């Protein structure tokens, strides 16, 4: 059996669960450069769930779009984290309701069976740190892909 590759992806919506640091790195690769309005971030404390509604770049489709000379795409996706006991932020002003944030990385630090920290690194020195009992992250596409407004793939030079 071989691991899945980006090239194996098709038009089916992504539905992934991450329960280990290695699993989280796969979701991190798929959500790199996702953007979201600050208003689409929520922590349901009683349910111990943190959620983000992201507009993620479809990295799994990048090579196909390039080869077929068609526009790059984004898709709206829901990123949820379960077993969250605390949330801390840095460099984010929740009062700026029109602010759009860009997710650069997602990383789990801690023992495999928890507890640990899940850190969402944002562009512009922002960060969200979630204390979790165990790594339990889900990524689910919620819309059909749409043309990326910029028409370009994200590039970090």
TrEMBL record:
This is DUF2948 family protein. It holds the Pfam family DUF2948. It comes from the Bacteria. InterPro entries: DUF2948.
